[in-house]
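Re: that chain you flagged

S.,

Sorry for the slow reply, it's been a week of failed gels. I finally had a moment to sit down with the sequence you sent. For the record, here it is as I used it:
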Amino acid sequence: MTKKYIEKILAARVYDVAVETPLELSRLLSARLNNKVLMKREDMQSVFSFKLRGAYNCIYQLSQQKEVKGVIAASAGNHAQGVALAAQRLGIKATIVMPKTTPAIKVNAVKSYGAKTVLIGDAYDEAYQHAIALAEKQKLDFIHPYDDPEVIAGQGTVGMEILRQHGGTIDAVFVPVGGGGLIAGVAAFIKHLRPEVKIIGVEPDDAPCMAEAFKQNKRVVLDHVGIFADGVAVRQAGKETYRIAKLCVDEIICVSTDEICAAIKDIFDESRSIMEPAGALAVAGLKKYVEREKSVGQTLVAINSGANMNFDRLRHVAERAELGEQREALLGVTIPERPGSFRAFCNTLGRRGITEFNYRYAHDDEAHVFAGIQLSEGFAEKDELIAKLKEKNYPVMDMTDNEMAKIHIRHLVGGHVAGLENEIVYRFEFPERPGALLDFLTRIGKRWNISLFHYRNHGAAYGRVLVGLQVIKKERKSLNSYLDELGYPYWDETNNPAYQLFLSSD
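Prediction finished late last night. Pasting the structure tokens below so you have them in one place:
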């Protein structure tokens, strides 16, 4: 079963590079949720993540068994820094293969530990394949980011510390999940000693590789994973990590981007520390669990797994945090185009705080308003406001959960274009690297006219684009074939009600 991992975790060599991070009481969240919330602060490691535990233990154990010529890893994030630091401490050469899309701050951090960096491909899969090829060619030892017993054992020391630091009752431990190394190690240790403690994994709802594996009772390969919580953007759970998780993990909770952003804000309010999206997953899952179970008076632990946040991403987090906390609603409202109607609409809103207000003349009869409204009583207040607006005969569209509206439309409210024919709209994600936007435009605009374009970069490895194209109906099948060949994830948003209300020429 998992007994061998108890011995491995107890013998794991991690404290040459890692510190025993504090298990801190979250006073604000505890008071708000009516439960005792404890945060395991793995963001306080020297590389701002738990990853150095598994990386160091794996490389150290290898060095005890044989002479290690060098190690190699594929990573765009925290594992890269963990391997680089571990190799430096052990006097071993390290090569880190990273996608070209990796932000410079992370590449430079790896170089600062003396590792050689190789930039190749646009995504992790390409970097991984290249690293495996280099490992074989140069006789290097590949250090897997999660699916290795020694890596799992190193991460398991987090669970060992939690039980040592809190001797009282623990009702549940919430663990972020990507490939599964952290949850496998933590679950194996805690379930062996304290089987009554629930182990709950947390994944983004757009990268649920372990949740899908649990659902289908086998490992699955996701067609596409979301880009926001890049630290856990894994298409398939590890073979060994899945095996352990099936034995020791009680459930997997999935959370939205908005809920992750709200958790980042919660942790900042508590500790003035800024988690990366993956680092805040556990708190987001903990909050969702409390709401679902209506739990009161329990002791709940969240592992804050990392804080390697790009500064550029903070604006996106700030935009979405209020939505995740149900403290903001986004509404599209149609008002009559006549003197006094704008003031009458504002009077209907009352003395609520306005976070955003975009107004544009549509035609002689009506105008459309994109409004962000502050809420003090959650989405129940939003529903009451919508009902009140409808009583006043205002057509209302709730865009609070409309991804295209939140990313693009709020920045594009400019009115409809008369006489624009055959427009269809797609949303894309494409690798963010120098020249990527020009390359995308060159490839997409060769055959069809671009009638709308909005691009946003959130400091992540991928840019987000909304594109309007003029394509006659008989060519739309060939367009879809062309888009499939481009290889970028895309979504047809032509029938999105937010587009229809604010931008469509129909």
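What I noticed first: The chain has a mean pLDDT of 88.

Talk soon,
D.
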